[in-house]
């Protein structure tokens, strides 16, 4: 399993997580939550928490691109390609044979404020704003106490929203938008 590809879940057997993370509690699977902040010069003014299955496509989408890149590189005449834990490495690219090219998957993902602009926007008059997007099914797995605490908190808003499925944007998914703003 290559950790350079976005995943929606971490598994206790994943080799790229630290022992301290793996052993901090008993678990088999954990959700991935992307945390993306916006700051002014000194303070965090907006924090978006987005569950991975609402934000990034399935792992196979990214793996397909990696396979195509590897295939293309290996078809270049007279190169020495090495398999690595990343996308690969081209060895001895210079006449002295002392330079290697590491091919890494460096993924960039747009800010949730842009991705979900039809669902929520930053309130510039707030001192701090928090937004969280998760699938409705995930929200329903929270304990009744936690759901009630979110629903009944005076500073928290909970809305049912429809968001694009990361694997098929033509399909909409039922999700929950949790927001909190501090003036």
Please outline the major beta sheet. 5 strands, mixed
- Number of helices in the DSSP assignment: 6
The separation of the N and C termini measures 44 Å
- Low-pLDDT segments: 1-7
Task: Provide the helix percentage.
Answer: 10-25%
Overall radius of gyration:
21 Å
Strand order of the largest sheet: 3-4-8-10-9
Shape, principal axes of CA atoms: elongated
Structural class: alpha+beta
Tell me the β content: 25-35%
- List the helices and strands in order: EHEEEHHEEEHEHHEE
Rounded average pLDDT: 87
Instruction: Work out the number of β strands.
Output: 10
The structural domain count equals 2
General description of the model:
The relative contact order is 0.16. The longest helix is centred in the middle third of the chain and has 16 residues, at 59-74. It is built from 6 helices and 10 strands; from the N terminus they run βαβββααβββαβααββ. Residues 1-7 have low confidence and may be disordered. The chain is elongated and about 65 Å long. It has 2 domains: 32-56 and 113-182, no CATH class; 62-103, no CATH class. With 183 residues, it is of the alpha+beta class.
Core attributes:
alpha+beta, five-stranded mixed beta sheet, 10 strands, 2 domains, single chain, disordered N terminus, 183 residues, three-stranded antiparallel beta sheet
């Amino acid at each position: 399993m290559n950790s350079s590809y976005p995943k929606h879940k971490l598994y206790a057997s994943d080799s790229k997580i630290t022992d301290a993370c793996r052993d901090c509690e008993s678990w088999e699977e954990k959700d991935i939550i992307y945390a993306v902040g916006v700051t002014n010069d000194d303070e965090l003014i907006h924090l978006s928490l987005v569950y991975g299955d609402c934000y990034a496509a399935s792992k196979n989408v990214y793996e397909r691109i990696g396979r195509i890149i590897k295939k293309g590189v290996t078809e270049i005449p007279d190169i020495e390609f090495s398999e690595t834990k990343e996308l690969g490495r081209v060895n001895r690219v210079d006449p002295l044979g002392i330079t290697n090219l590491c091919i890494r998957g460096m993924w960039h993902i747009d800010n949730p404020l842009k991705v979900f602009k039809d669902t929520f926007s930053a309130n510039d008059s707030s001192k701090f704003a928090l937004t969280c997007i998760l699938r409705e099914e995930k929200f329903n797995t929270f304990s009744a106490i936690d759901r009630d605490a979110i629903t009944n908190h005076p500073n928290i808003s909970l809305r049912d929203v429809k968001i694009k499925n990361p694997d098929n944007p033509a399909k909409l998914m039922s999700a929950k938008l949790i927001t909190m703003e501090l003036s």
